[in-house]
Amino acid sequence: MICASAEGLEEPCKRKDLGDGAYGFEYYPNTPGTYSITITWGGQHIPRSPIEVKIGAEAGQQKVRAWGPGLEFGVVGKSADFVVEAVGDNVGTLGFSVEGPSQAKIECDDKGDGSCDVRYWPTEPGEYAVHVLCNSEDIQHSPFMAEIVNPPAKDFYPDKVLAFGPGLQSSGLAVGKPTEFTVDAKQGGKAPLKIAAQDGEGAPVEVQVKDNGNGTYACCYTPRKPVKHTAMVSWGGVNIPDSPFRMNIGAGCHPNKVKVSGPGVAKTGLKAFEPTYFTVDCAEAGQGIKCAPGVVGPAEADIDFDIIRNDNDTFTVKYTPPGAGSYTIMVLFADQAIPMTPIRIKVDPSHDASKVKAEGPGLSRSGVELNKPTHFTVSTKAAGKANLDCSFSGPTKGEAVKDFEIINNHDNTHTVKYTPVQQGPLGVAVTYGGDPVPKSPFSVAVAPTLDLGKINVTGLGDKMTVGKDQEVTVKSKGAGGQGKVAAKVTSPSGKPVASKVEPGLSPETSQVKFIPREAGPYQVELTYDAVPIPGSPFNPTAYPVSDPSKVRCSGPGLERAKVGEKGEFIVDCTNAGPAELTIEIISDSGTEAEVHIQDNGDGTYTITYIPLYPGSYTLTIRYGGQDVPNFPARLTVEPAVDASGVRVFGPGVEGKGIFREATTDFTVDARALTQTGGDHIKTLISNPSGSRTDALIADLGDGTYSVEYTPYEEGPHSVEVCYDGSLVPKSPFRVAVTEGCDPARVRVHGPGLKGGITNKPNKFTVETRGAGTGGLGLAMEGPSEAKMSCTDNKDGSCSVEYIPYETGKYNLNITYGGQPIKGSPFSVPVSDSVDSTKVKCLGSGLGTNVRANVPQAFTVDASKAGVAPLQVRVQGPKGRLCSACVGSGCDGGGVLRSLCSGVVEPVEVVDNGDQTHTVNYVPTREGPYSINVLYADEEIPRSPYKVKVLPTHDASKVRASGPGLNTSGVPASLPVEFTIDAKDAGEGLLAVQITDPEGKPKKANIRDNHDGTYLVSYVPDMTGRYTILIKYGGDEIPYSPYRIRALPTGDASKCSVTGV
């Protein structure tokens, strides 16, 4: 091998025998340029020899460096990984290329910290040149020559090798402290482990590896510089998952080098509420607070610190002592206490709580209301600086106040606001610098919330009497507040009137007393807790003293009146002075008539009243609370009508057999007064206890009324009956109500009494209204036990259900009060369940080809419907009205009825023995028929069936066809035939008449095919026209008569006669 420079100078080469016929060469070019390398074997050039190699200038200052296993070796099919790291800040543009036996895909992952992970995938073994370019030029040592080999045949899984441990964590590592990590290759197969590590300056870091003998490796290294470190772990030349690992190495933590100084940590000279500060110097302490500003401070502080970070690794800590006393300050660096701590300081007081004054409505013993905002003022002039605080204690647990707020007025005063939420005594503790102020705690009585709507004023009307004591009652129950009532009275002349307010006889009431001395309008102002009471001021008028003896009464309504009519009289108080007029009109039975008093405005009053019941009344008239002359007086009220003609009768008034809780009734016959009924009857039923019993009055519309009532008490009852307010004869009726019952009054009804169905509920109703109080008994005897249930309907009736399980006759026993009711026991037939909806009908007798006078049939299938009687009714069309019916008043009897209402055909129903029936009938007329099929007395589905009955025969439906009717001719002398189709033509006689050309009849043979068709044959024995006449039921069929020509058959000239 000869290596020559561009000038032709040979460079020395070193040859190495690598064994197996392989040789390696080394040379060191001294000048840049193109070199020529000549390689010969046995004196002959090998392929590509001589080889030209371009030598660049010596590498200068490097901007990047590259390292990692992928630059030295790799495995086919696996990624070959390496790391590229920046050297300095100005990196330039990176580029990569790989030359070798195969084209390898390249990927680059920028990590954002001045480094990137590069990987390429070789697909064939051999030597690869890996170029790392910076600004389009190879970096130092580029290209890197990597030897790529085939993967081992088996047991090689680098992707299953794991590396973990504190030595690979991205943070928490310090300079000079050994750290460890583990490589777990238990699942990786067999291959060599290689670990390469460098610090951020490119210096290699030694990693000690210990094989634990179990597929794991213990790795240890000691970082020497506080810079980023990178480690790459490969297995058999292939990078393992998560490799490369990047670790940030810290400078370490030295709490013992932290210094604290300043007035805020001085042992004396500190005063409460005066801001102070101290400085924390961490310049020589390493990592800790510099990495996490704001974490320095007392671990369990009761002082708020303001920590300010300075640019020189020092911190200024500001705070204000919240009060006098001893404090402990802790300073932590990286969660470790520095040697100077704990620092103990003494804070002297800076205030004098005895000079603080607190006053205002919120501290008064009265005047504070529940849920009403209030306030008070605290003056701290000459008291020094300190924190003002307030606390509240209520009569019960929980919050005593809400909306609490202390407002600094910045003039050495504070406003304290709060809203009490508990009624009762409230304690208000006010402290200044932690010391109670004078008179603290204050005791405040919290009154209920003021609600003026609950105040009621009585005794103050529109009119007063001069010289008479006036007592006004103010009821304040539930009005809340302090309950202070005040009054101010002004006379008509504008002068104040002496008044006084005294406690009332009952709690939460007050009496306002005054005496009006002059006549005229007054003004009375009433306040509650200094707030005007609703309606205040009141304006009553004082009048001279009244004299009831001067009241005069007149008018017709003072002597007599009539029920339902207005009575009227006049009360003249003109000379009696002002006073209150009261009138009462009460009957001897205690009924009060409604009275209306109309003030006429001239000292007189118009009195009207309407009495509702006849009888004697007492009329009382009072003026100013005293009876007027000639009163009370008696007043007679006459009935509005004469009810003597009204009759009342029935058990409800006759008093026989009336039981408690049993409805009874009676009848009111008022036909003597009304023939059309109306709202005339009223009843009043009084019980022994004095209570009333309601009655139900039914107007029958003919002047009679049915009245029902149910007594609920035992003993004598009074039944009062009135017609338009007038008692009817014998009213009130005296009725005795007793305990007991009458089974004869019990009524039963319902389908379950007539018959029952097996395995299904059968219902009936038992009504005990009017039968008294007794126990209802039910029992059913028969072929099987029947399940029974009874439901009380709460209306005097019970709903009963029973379920029998076998067919047959059952006896239903019903008792009331232990005695059988009328009709008991009841005989109830029980049959199986019948469902008429499951009955089906089919057959030609219901079809579309039903003919008159032709027997018809259809089948009724009840195999799935149960056993029940079958009824079939076939009704034909209505007949024409005969001359005898028109205008004769025919009642449809006999034959005429059959013609007018439609013929009913006889029906034969044949039981086939398998729950099917054959129904036979013969329709005698054509037209619409209706066929009703009832099963168990119920129409089955689609019943009634509508059937259109056609005529007995219809020649128009007959068709004739065949060669014997060929219009183009038939062969003479040869038999021919044709077919007649009468399937749809009904029942009729077929007649065929054939006439030959000479008019003579020709025999026709007719054969019945028994399917509604006929075959007709004949022999036209001569040529000429034949006439074929076809009738069905005496009528010609369509196209009849047919005219058919018989044509010659054969050639007569070819016939020969012999033997003549």
TrEMBL record:
Filamin repeat ranges per the UniProt record: 1-55, 56-148, 153-249, 250-347, 348-446, 447-542, 543-637, 638-737, 738-830, 831-949, 950-1046
Region (Disordered): 477-505
Coiled-coil features, chain-numbered ranges: none
GO molecular function: actin filament binding
SUPFAM superfamilies recorded: E set domains
Annotated SMART domains: IG_FLMN
Protein name (Swiss-Prot/TrEMBL): Filamin-A
Lineage: Eukaryota, Metazoa, Chordata, Craniata, Vertebrata
The encoding gene: FLNA_2
